[in-house]
Structures are given as structure tokens and as C-alpha cells.
Specification:
25% of the residues lie in helices and 21% in strands. It is built from 5 helices and 10 strands; from the N terminus they run H-E-E-E-E-H-E-H-E-H-E-E-H-E-E. It has helices spanning 2-10, 67-76, 89-97, 108-113, 159-173; strands spanning 17-20, 34-37, 45-48, 62-64, 82-84, 103-107, 122-124, 138-141, 184-188, 191-196. The radius of gyration is 18 Å and the shape is elongated. Mean pLDDT is 78; it is low at 177-199.
């Protein structure tokens, strides 16, 4: 999906694309720079149960779409199966209500921005599940040959610093990165790395 919007920018069919920063590649091409950042939403991951349910059904899989979440869920729920789930948030919720999954693990930010915070059954604190780098932040991608004089008013406090830090750290280290605000930790190549106060 990011690639489709990038193509539209390069072909001048659009002026600006907005993405969840966690879904963007770690290295941003020079001709499609990040020119704006939103105020950060809640960076945590959450558990979503079927409507009306209060307990996990251990006989149905947990639905999630990232390896990061799957690996951490195996630590939290070692006796439960994790199964990939595709589609936008509404599609995933429909699959949950159809009984294909016992619960979903999604980003709190996406649910809150869609007005679906009431579907959140449980928050995972960063000590339990490390969020993806950039989770909760939105980034605006522009055309490298243009000036975006208005973008300064679109950048939330600290978001541009986190965005630049995310990209710069990964370029220098060659690592993937997970972080959460002040309690930052990073992980890549199967290792853990204390990241403390950089972002």
C-alpha cells in the first residue's frame, strides 16, 4: 500500500501521502522524504476480543499480522496459536466477529483514530510487548523536489525527532528498531540492545 502511494507521488498524481510511521520502510528515499509528523497517539499494542466476550477462547487463534507481535505473544500466551490476519481494521474486526479468531492484537493508535477505542479489551504495556518503531506516529511523505513550507505546522512536538532518530539509528546500525517513548529499547538481528534516552 505504501508503494502504491509512493508511485502516485512520483507520477505527480498526489502532493502528499500520510502513513502510519511504523508501516514505512526504515530507510526513506531522498526523492520521497518525510516532510511532516503528527502528534503522537498511544503507541501501545492492544487485545481485542469479540463483542460481548470478556475472556480469551484458547481454542481459537490469536490474530496478528507482524512477526514482532507473534514472537512476543508466544511468551505471553505460550499455549495459544498465533495466526496471520490480513485486511484493514474493519476487515479484521469482521473476521473476528465471524469466529475465525479468538482475539486480535492491533495498534491502539489505529483503533483510537478510527473511533473504535471501545473495542479495546486490554492494553499491553511496553514491558510486556515492545511497540514497533514509530507506532502511534503518522508521517507525511512528500516529493523531494518540492518545498513544503506548511509542513512545520503539521509536526507534533517530538515526533520529528523520533522520526529522524528512527531512520538515522537504523542506517548507522543496520538494525531494526522497536521503541516506546522514554522507556526505549531496541531489537534487531535477534539481539536486544538498551537504547535508553536517544529518542
Amino acid at each position: 500500500f505504501v508503494k502504491e502511494l509512493d508511485k502516485a507521488l512520483l507520477e505527480k498524481h498526489s502532493d502528499l501521502s500520510v502513513h502510519s510511521l511504523k508501516d514505512m520502510p526504515m530507510e526513506v528515499p531522498e526523492d520521497l522524504p518525510l516532510v511532516a509528523f503528527s502528534k503522537r497517539e498511544d503507541p501501545r499494542d492492544v487485545l481485542v476480543l469479540p463483542e460481548g466476550e470478556t475472556e480469551l477462547n484458547p481454542e481459537k487463534p490469536l490474530g496478528c499480522s507482524s512477526l514482532r507481535r507473534t514472537l512476543q505473544l508466544k511468551e505471553l500466551y505460550p499455549d495459544m496459536e498465533c495466526k496471520s490476519v490480513r485486511g484493514n481494521v474493519q476487515t479484521r474486526l469482521r473476521k473476528l466477529e465471524e469466529g475465525q479468531y479468538g482475539a486480535l492484537v492491533l495498534a491502539a493508535a489505529g483503533l483510537k483514530r478510527l473511533g473504535l477505542a471501545h473495542r479495546i479489551s486490554r492494553y499491553f504495556e511496553p514491558e510486556e510487548m515492545i511497540p514497533a518503531a514509530g507506532q502511534g506516529d503518522s508521517g507525511g511523505t512528500g516529493q523531494g523536489w518540492r518545498g513544503y513550507f506548511f509542513s512545520g505546522g503539521l509536526s507534533g512536538c517530538g515526533c520529528s525527532v523520533r522520526g529522524a532518530g528512527r531512520e538515522g539509528f537504523c542506517k548507522i546500525s543496520g538494525w531494526g528498531l522497536f521503541f516506546s517513548g522514554g522507556g526505549t529499547r531496541s531489537s534487531g538481528r535477534g539481539d536486544a540492545y538498551p537504547f535508553g534516552t536517544l529518542l
